[in-house]
Design a protein that fits this description.
By secondary structure, the protein is mainly beta. It has three domains: 27-142, Jelly Rolls, CATH 2.60.120.290; 149-243, Beta Complex (Ferric Hydroxamate Uptake Protein, Chain A, domain 1), CATH 2.170.130.20; 261-382, Jelly Rolls (Sandwich), CATH 2.60.120. It contains two helices and 30 strands. The strands form seven sheets. Strands 18, 19, 22, 25, 27, 28 and 30 form a seven-stranded mixed sheet that branches. A six-stranded antiparallel sheet has the order 1-8-7-10-5-2, with no helix packed on it. A six-stranded antiparallel sheet has the order 12-13-16-21-15-14. The longest helix has 8 residues, at 191-198. It is elongated and about 80 Å long.
């Protein structure tokens, strides 16, 4: 039959010899890292294009092997999958898996290879239907593709936590999330996408997440956090609540840190319509303050706001808000830098460490926007 799992097959190779890359005009959302990743065909979950191909070269660290999870394989059926197909091959041993299409699907949702290198080849000819494909992978170091049960609370009512591994690239997977980091998420939300929204993993890295399934609530409020919008939604029987490891040990770790002093590059002295002076000073940047906030001089080009936490603290994220409904001002994006002594400053570069991270800020003056620091910042001063 057309099902060639583990059979010898010759002549399957990427156009590019480099590991961790994709090549071709049929590649959709793709994020490939040494430890995990996500890949999809172009337009997924819309119909994939005619006469297209994509070749992904996956490379795990030496001494590990790859595990591939088939999220969706919906390619128009044809005899021996000759028209549109997905084929996986281990170039080291010549072993092939597939070809797969709608009438010849993988026999199991998880493929455990014995190789650190796998080539994933997708191609199409003329067709009318099909969502295409969505795959994710992890290495044998991170095999947690199923929930594992843990009893976190020894006292009734018992809190049962679950742990699952989320591959890199969850943020742009198709599907919705309902809820927010403080309330939790409706259990029909895309789990790993919700984990990115909650700030417990970085989309660029993926990682293990710990969560509990708890009783649902009447209404889940929408929020913008970590570059993702969630939806406002109604009751579900259960909800997903994400836990940072430290919060399982110390519930106070998500509390807002006290700011001892605010400083700024400049502030705006406004004269209002009645001729009264209004000072938009740095101290007015505290999130709890009503009325107008901090604002830099209108002519300032490189404005900054500085928070002094008094001593070195572990800073896991930041929440920003516009000035108020009366004064429709807000910051749309920003950089963060930190210092332990107030003299030497280090720009925040996020999980990849390649370049200074630009955080997405607010789109209006009313809503709060959360951004997580993964990894956290250890500093006394944050700018």
């Amino acid at each position: 039959g057309p099902h060639q799992e583990g059979r010898q097959r010759q002549g399957t190779a990427c156009l590019s010899p480099l590991p961790g890359v994709s090549a071709g005009n049929g590649c959709g959302h793709t994020l490939l890292t040494p430890h995990s990743g996500t890949l999809s065909s172009k337009n997924y979950p819309g119909t994939y294009p005619n006469h297209t191909m994509c070749c992904w070269q996956l490379q795990a660290p030496p001494g590990t092997f790859l595990l591939l999870a088939f999220g969706d394989v919906d390619l128009e059926p044809s005899e021996h999958c000759a028209h549109s197909s997905l084929l996986l091959a281990d170039p080291q041993t010549g072993t092939a898996y597939g070809p797969y299409c709608r009438n010849s699907v993988p026999s199991a949702p998880l493929l455990v290879t014995n190789s650190s290198t796998v080539t994933v080849l997708f191609n199409s000819t003329s067709h009318r239907s099909g969502r295409g494909l969505l795959l994710s992978y992890a290495t044998s170091q991170h095999p947690g593709t199923h929930y594992t049960q843990e009893h976190v609370s020894p006292d009734p009512p018992l809190t049962i936590c679950f742990s699952v591994y989320c591959p890199a690239g969850c943020k742009d997977i198709h599907g919705d999330i309902w809820g927010n980091p403080s309330q939790g998420y409706r259990d029909t939300s895309v789990l790993c996408k919700a984990a990115v929204h909650a700030g417990v993993i970085a989309d660029e890295l993926g990682g293990q997440v710990t969560l509990s399934r708890e009783k649902g609530i009447t209404l889940y409020e929408a929020a913008f956090a970590n570059g993702l919008h969630s939806k406002r939604g109604s009751l579900s029987e259960k909800r997903l609540v994400f836990h940072k490891v430290c919060c399982l040990l110390s519930p106070a770790c998500d509390d807002a840190l006290e700011v001892v002093a605010f400083n700024a590059s400049s502030w705006w002295h406004e004269v209002d319509a009645l001729g009264q002076d209004r000072a938009w000073v740095a101290e007015r940047a505290a999130l709890s303050i009503t009325g107008h906030s901090w604002a830099a001089e209108p002519s300032a080009e490189a404005a900054w706001l500085e928070l002094d936490l008094g001593t070195r603290k572990n800073v896991t994220g930041i929440i920003t808000k516009g000035s108020s409904e009366q004064h429709d001002y807000y910051v749309t994006s920003y950089h963060v830098s930190s210092s332990r002594d107030g003299k030497n400053w280090r720009p925040y570069r996020g999980s990849t460490g390649q370049e200074d991270k630009v955080f997405e800020g607010n789109a209006d003056s009313q809503g709060e926007v959360s951004n997580a620091f993964i990894p956290p910042i250890i500093a006394r001063y944050v700018r």
